[in-house]
């Protein structure tokens, strides 16, 4: 029995659909696992095409003694459930208190081990105990949501480099999020040095080691996804005055100024994530001001405890309530716990059944939420944008723009993906500027942070477009790639 036939047999045994694009993916993956060098690669199919099935089909078709799968913490339960169901065996979940008692010899007794990026980043588990994940020679390491490794200056990236593996797989629908450097760092984990991009044609590296198909190229038709931008004006004079005072020193004269001030796009995003987690102090003065601007645009109470009005929260809630009885479950993506709680309280007060998903949500509760569709699911965008299958929901509300547009795309893809049967509506809320208010220097009229981030998003999307040129032909029509100056990320049969 060939490996490809074995995959088809697995599809029949598990009751999964025979999707051509997934069969092609497993065929490509099996070829990459048999390569003479740099075994593995990047599976960068568009979000919603089923990268999980593609890589698990590869694992089933080419069984090896020890496979490690590295995940965001929020996806541990989902992967454990999928593997238990499809393989009829439980993987070892190397996470939590029990892991401290496990030795490397005990760990390798399990053919599939799940762990988190957080644990991979830890060199020492205690004062004298080296992380056993580093000491094992893995047959295969799989990184899900591999864009977590895009920054080579992080502990996560360093930890990933310490893992020893014969085969390395990187799964991400967004291989470039901020700059081309993201892609270089992912290739570094595959064993390529920076010099490889100088000595070797980048097209050759991309076409040989990366699989990327869009939903269109895969020949799949999804229901339409309609996006609406809701521009929110400042309703309350005191709120507007406070916002003006905070925003004016942040003279957004061009898209690159804050990146330069903070040392790069990744630094802004990471610093803001840290602020959201800590909600207090740390970072440069510029960033502290930036964090205030973010907060005042969504919930002024986070900046001034006596300020209870919020134009944006009012707009979000009124938009949701206007569509309350249309029978379409809603997902609302937020940043702060207080923001989530405020929206939840207001919607519950109008009779809506609401569930919350954020850093406060336990593992068991997360699992229950994923199978219990409610009127409105409210969560933190950085906790809920990855890997979750939420096709039961039909409307997406993004309360504030994200520095990284790929994060928003991933959030929308939680419900606009294979299996969605209805049109999806997306609402993005943006605070408008301060008309008639002059800045302190010669610059355009004052922008809100929301408006500035939208400009940054355009800049980043332009970077991605220059690097990732979407193919026009469907998979069945593809021909060998001819030499060209354009950089194309596409799997060619």
UniProtKB/TrEMBL annotation:
Keywords, ordered alphabetically: ATP-binding, Hydrolase, Nucleotide-binding
SMART domains: DEXDc, HELICc
Ranges of residues in domain Helicase ATP-binding: 32-193
Entries under SUPFAM superfamilies matching the protein: P-loop containing nucleoside triphosphate hydrolases
Domain Helicase C-terminal intervals: 312-489
Molecular function GO terms recorded: ATP binding; ATP-dependent activity, acting on DNA; hydrolase activity
InterPro entries in the record: Helicase_ATP-bd (IPR014001), Helicase_C-like (IPR001650), P-loop_NTPase (IPR027417), SNF2-like_sf (IPR038718), SNF2/RAD54-like_C (IPR049730), SNF2_N (IPR000330), SNF2_RAD54_helicase_TF (IPR050628)
GO terms classed as biological process: DNA repair
Pfam families named among the record's database cross-references: Helicase_C (PF00271), SNF2-rel_dom (PF00176)
Cellular component per GO, a single term: nucleus
PANTHER family linked: TRANSCRIPTION TERMINATION FACTOR 2-RELATED (PTHR45626)
Protein name in the entry: Helicase ATP-binding domain-containing protein
Lineage: unclassified sequences, metagenomes, organismal metagenomes
């Amino acid at each position: 029995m060939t490996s490809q036939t074995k995959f088809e047999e697995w599809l029949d045994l598990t009751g999964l659909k025979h999707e051509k694009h997934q069969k092609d993916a497993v065929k490509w993956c099996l070829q990459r696992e048999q390569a003479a060098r740099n075994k593995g690669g990047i599976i960068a199919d568009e979000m919603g095409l089923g990268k999980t099935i593609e890589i698990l089909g590869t694992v089933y078709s080419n069984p090896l003694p020890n496979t490690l799968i590295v995940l965001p913490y929020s996806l541990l339960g989902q992967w454990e459930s999928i593997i238990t169901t499809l393989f009829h065996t439980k993987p070892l979940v190397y996470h939590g208190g029990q892991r401290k008692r496990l030795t490397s010899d005990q760990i390798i007794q399990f053919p599939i081990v799940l762990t988190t990026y957080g644990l991979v980043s830890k060199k020492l588990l205690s004062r004298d105990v080296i992380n056993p994940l580093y000491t094992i020679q893995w047959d295969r390491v799989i990184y899900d949501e591999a864009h977590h490794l895009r920054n080579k200056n992080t502990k996560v990236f360093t930890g990933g480099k310490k893992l020893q593996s014969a085969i390395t797989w990187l799964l991400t629908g967004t291989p470039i999020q901020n700059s081309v450097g993201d892609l270089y760092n992912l290739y570094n984990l595959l064993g390529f040095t920076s010099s490889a991009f100088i000595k070797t044609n980048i097209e050759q590296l991309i076409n040989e080691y990366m699989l990327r198909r869009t939903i269109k190229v895969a020949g799949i038709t999804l229901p339409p996804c309609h996006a609406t931008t809701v521009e929110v004006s400042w309703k309350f004079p005191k709120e507007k005055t406070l916002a003006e005072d905070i925003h004016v020193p942040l003279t957004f004269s061009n898209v690159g100024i804050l990146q330069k001030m903070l040392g790069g796009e990744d630094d802004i995003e990471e610093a803001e994530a840290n602020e959201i987690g800590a909600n207090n102090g740390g970072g440069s003065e510029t960033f502290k001001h930036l964090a205030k601007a973010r907060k005042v645009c969504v919930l002024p109470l986070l900046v001034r405890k006596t300020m209870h009005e919020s134009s944006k929260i009012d707009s979000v809630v009124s938009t949701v309530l206007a569509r309350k009885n249309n029978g379409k479950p809603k997902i609302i993506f937020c940043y702060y716990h207080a923001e989530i709680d405020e929206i939840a309280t207001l919607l519950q007060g109008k009779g809506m059944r609401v569930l919350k998903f954020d850093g406060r949500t336990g593992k068991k509760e997360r699992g229950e939420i994923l199978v219990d569709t409610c009127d409105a699911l409210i969560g933190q965008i950085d906790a809920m944008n990855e890997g979750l299958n939420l096709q039961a929901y039909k409307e997406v509300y993004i309360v504030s723009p994200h520095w990284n547009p790929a994060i928003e795309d991933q959030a929308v893809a939680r419900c606009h993906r294979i299996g969605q049967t209805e049109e999806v509506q997306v609402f993005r809320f943006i605070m408008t500027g301060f008309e008639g208010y002059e800045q302190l220097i010669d610059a355009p009229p004052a922008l809100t942070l929301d408006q500035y981030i939208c400009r940054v998003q355009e800049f980043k999307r332009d970077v991605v477009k220059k690097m990732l040129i979407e193919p026009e032909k469907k998979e069945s029509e593809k021909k060998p790639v001819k030499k060209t100056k354009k950089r194309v990320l596409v799997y060619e049969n």
